[in-house]
């Protein structure tokens, strides 16, 4: 039976995809990894930022840090200091973020090289580009390039209660000595939280594996954050906000590289790395004309 006109039209690409093609952009064949699982943005960020504010206003930020600091005790002749700073496993954990970053950069570059020379694995190149982009923006530009040099939040070691000279300040308050006070956000924490980024590469059919990867990455990053707290390098709120920063950058950059599967038929974003030829546009127009003629 001949298809009706409505049925033929319903099988055409969505209107937003047609507009995207008409603009002259289309990803080369095999460059996108298909639809990736859509993770929510607002409520996880709201939860983490809310938790960061909560630990500050309730005093938990300082209380958690106190549990790792040894105060002077004249009766036992104990000297004040960070008793866990050079102890294991904290010292070993503190050394791992740099190694994690090196491993992820190496894997990303390897994927890009393989994808470049192997058309069937071209998606590996896009995955590597995405991971490197998030790492360059989050721990690279935003943390070490902007916040560390401008925010000026004292580390626990700088705070008077823990043997320093500065006053404790909330993470949302900009300090007056950014040259010496570089406590916000956590560089080690941000590097560790980049381990979450590969979770955003999983397709919609493997969403549960993406969530498992995301959970494991958060656990590893939390261990790194706890080590930094134990050494007096950061407050809990520094670590929480580092995770929020990486998550936000990953969510924000993902539509630039992949199709994102969102319920409700929202706009699909594609990697804009190639211009569509006139022949491709003509082929699409001819296909639509044939479909309409058959329906008629």
TrEMBL record:
<feature type="transmembrane region" description="Helical">
    <location>
        <begin position="239"/>
        <end position="257"/>
    </location>
</feature>
<protein>
    <submittedName>
        <fullName>PAP2 superfamily protein</fullName>
    </submittedName>
</protein>
<feature type="transmembrane region" description="Helical">
    <location>
        <begin position="124"/>
        <end position="147"/>
    </location>
</feature>
<keyword id="KW-0812">Transmembrane</keyword>
<keyword id="KW-0472">Membrane</keyword>
<feature type="domain" description="Phosphatidic acid phosphatase type 2/haloperoxidase">
    <location>
        <begin position="130"/>
        <end position="254"/>
    </location>
</feature>
<feature type="compositionally biased region" description="Basic and acidic residues">
    <location>
        <begin position="13"/>
        <end position="24"/>
    </location>
</feature>
<feature type="transmembrane region" description="Helical">
    <location>
        <begin position="209"/>
        <end position="227"/>
    </location>
</feature>
<dbReference type="InterPro" id="IPR036938">
    <property type="entry name" value="PAP2/HPO_sf"/>
</dbReference>
<dbReference type="Pfam" id="PF01569">
    <property type="entry name" value="PAP2"/>
</dbReference>
<feature type="transmembrane region" description="Helical">
    <location>
        <begin position="100"/>
        <end position="118"/>
    </location>
</feature>
<feature type="region of interest" description="Disordered">
    <location>
        <begin position="1"/>
        <end position="24"/>
    </location>
</feature>
<dbReference type="InterPro" id="IPR000326">
    <property type="entry name" value="PAP2/HPO"/>
</dbReference>
<feature type="transmembrane region" description="Helical">
    <location>
        <begin position="41"/>
        <end position="64"/>
    </location>
</feature>
<keyword id="KW-1133">Transmembrane helix</keyword>
């Amino acid at each position: 039976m001949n298809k009706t006109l409505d049925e033929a039209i319903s099988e055409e690409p969505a209107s937003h995809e047609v507009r995207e093609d008409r603009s002259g952009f289309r990803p080369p064949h095999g460059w996108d990894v298909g639809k990736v699982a859509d993770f929510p943005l607002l409520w996880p960020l709201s939860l983490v930022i809310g938790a960061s504010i909560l630990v500050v206003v309730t005093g938990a930020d300082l209380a958690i840090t106190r549990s790792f600091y040894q105060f002077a005790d004249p009766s036992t002749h104990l000297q004040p200091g960070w008793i866990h700073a050079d102890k294991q496993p904290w010292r070993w954990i503190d050394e791992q973020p740099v190694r994690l970053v090196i491993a992820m950069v190496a894997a990303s570059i390897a994927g890009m090289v393989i994808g470049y020379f192997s058309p069937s694995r071209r998606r590996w190149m896009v995955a590597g580009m995405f991971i490197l982009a998030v790492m360059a923006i989050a721990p690279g530009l935003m943390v070490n390039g902007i916040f560390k040099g401008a925010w000026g939040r004292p580390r626990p070691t700088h705070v008077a209660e823990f043997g320093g000279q500065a006053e404790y300040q909330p993470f949302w308050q900009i300090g007056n000595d950014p040259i010496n006070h570089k406590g916000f956000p956590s560089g080690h924490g941000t590097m560790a939280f980049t381990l979450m980024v590969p979770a955003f590469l999983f397709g919609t059919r493997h969403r549960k594996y993406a969530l498992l990867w995301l959970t494991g990455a958060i656990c590893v990053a939390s261990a790194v954050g706890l080590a930094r707290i134990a050494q007096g390098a950061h407050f809990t709120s520094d670590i929480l906000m580092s995770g929020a920063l990486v998550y936000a950058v990953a969510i924000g950059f993902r539509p630039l590289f992949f199709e994102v599967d969102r319920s409700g038929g929202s706009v699909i974003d594609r990697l804009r790395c190639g211009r569509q030829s006139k022949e491709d546009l003509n082929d699409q127009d001819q296909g639509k004309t044939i479909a309409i003629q058959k329906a008629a």
